[in-house]
Every structure is written in C-alpha cells, then in structure tokens.
Write a structure and sequence with these properties.
It contains five helices and four strands, in the order H-H-H-E-H-E-H-E-E. It is an alpha+beta fold. The protein has a single domain, classed as Rossmann fold, CATH 3.40.50. The longest helix has 44 residues. The N terminus is likely disordered.
Length: 131
Amino acid sequence: MRAPREVLWSEPVTWNIEIQWNAKIFSCSIKIWCARNLPRQAPAYADAPVIKDPLHLDKLVEAVRPAPEARVLEIATGPGHVALAFARVCREVVGVDLTEAPLKIANTDARGTRSQQRPLPVGRRGGAAAL
C-alpha cells in the first residue's frame, strides 16, 4: 500500500499525460472532421439568413464601435460576413479559417473591396488561410 504522499505525487502526473494525449487525439479528430465536412457545408452556412443579416452585422459593428484606425482579427471567419462588416469602418481586417472553402465564398462576396486571399505561414500545426 502506498503512502498518501506518493499517491498525491504520482497520480496527477499520469493523469496529466493522459489528458494531454487525449487532447492531441481530440485535436486531430476535430481537424479531420473539419477538413471533410466544412467545405461541403460552407455554401449552406454562408447563405443562412441569420449569419448574413446586414442589420445584425451592423448592430455588432455599432456595439464594438471600432476606431477608423482599428485593426481587426476574426478567427474562424467562415464566409467572412463579420470581417467584411468591420472592413467598411476599420483600417485593416484579417479573417482566418481552417479551410479554404468558406474563404472562397468570402472573397466572392468581397468583390469590389481591397480584399485578397492568401495562405498564412502556420508552421507544422496545420493549414490556414486568410481573407
């Protein structure tokens, strides 16, 4: 039988390693799911009225009240509706997403603006792209 002090010091280390391992597996599973499903779902999501409602987007920008010289970063930008709403009033807006499909929609919607899509250097953690 272990002394209580040994249990306190050994079990959390094992538990911590197990949690880290499970987090890596979960992270890989999420990336695989996203790569397989998000490109297929992107058009329907982009066209959902609640996502692209100009009144809701204007209210969001109004609530934040960004300064004209503000720089905005939108993570998981999807079709870029929020990023494009902020781009009307801010100096610079960057939208990033895990998959390219919704960013292609964002760039189509951004015609006539100064937007461009370009890959981001993200090292060995996986791909990303920017609006």
